Amino acid sequence: MEYQLSLEEELLYSFFTQVYPITKEEFKPIAKVIKKKSYRRGDYILNIGQIETKTSFVIKGIVHQYVIIEDNSFTIDISLAGMSFNCFTSFIESTPSNQIQQAVTDVEIIYLEKKDSEKLLLDSKPFCYIYTKLYEQVHLEREKRSLLLQYKSAYERYKQFLATIVKSKQFLEEVPQKMIADYLSLTPETFSRVKRKYLTNTIS
Is the pTM of this model over 0.90? Predict the structure, then answer.
């Protein structure tokens, strides 16, 4: 009889099959170590000084990853439903995090502890492939963002955001405008101006 998945397991299974056609039987050892946690809006998922021990997948809500430098916050990443996240340096080196992960809305995540992921990487070829591809996607998105930030023109930066960031339209629909502005290293006022300009140019 085919292995029956819970709702949370089904969500992660669906997420994984977008990367690789893993069978439910192959997914079974992964399902056994999945954990779930909920956070209220404003809760910290990871704070400065804590050590990252998990790779998380957003089921519901928005997660903001940022650092604070000289009392100013700077966005590292924003994760929406269907996206994975963690503090990579802390996770790999087991060192205290210099970033914060915070729930922008009520958030539900499912996650894998590092020790469980490492065992699966040794025991499961499908998981090893999926895990590698997911990290490639995360770092590809971050590289694209780093490149678009090289544009001095705010308008070109916004255009490149729409053209290169896969979930840019979802960002615009779900994420607070001020946070997207910070993601693009723009003031909220500049972001609003270039957004209006882009819409005007697109319509005309």
Answer: no
How far is residue 116 from each of residues 3, 30, 96, 100, 164, measured CA to CA in Å? 20, 9, 20, 23, 33
Q: Identify the residue whose tokens are 């994420």.
A: 175
| pLDDT one-digit tens code per residue, 150-160 | 878 999 999 99
The reported pLDDT for the residue numbered 50 is 97
In whole angstroms, give the CA distance from residue 103 to residue 156.
Answer: 30
Q: Is 1-113 CATH 3.40.30.10? A: no
Q: What is the DSSP string of the chain?
A: -PPPPPHHHHHHHHHHHTTS---HHHHHHHHTT-EEEEE-TT-EEE-TTPBP-EEEEEEES-EEEEEEETTEEEEEEEE-TT-EE--HHHHHHT-B-SSEEEESSSEEEEEEEHHHHHHHHHH-HHHHHHHHHHHHHHHHHHHHHHHHTT-SSHHHHHHHHHHH-TTHHHHHHHS-HHHHHHHTT--HHHHHHHHHHHHHHHH-
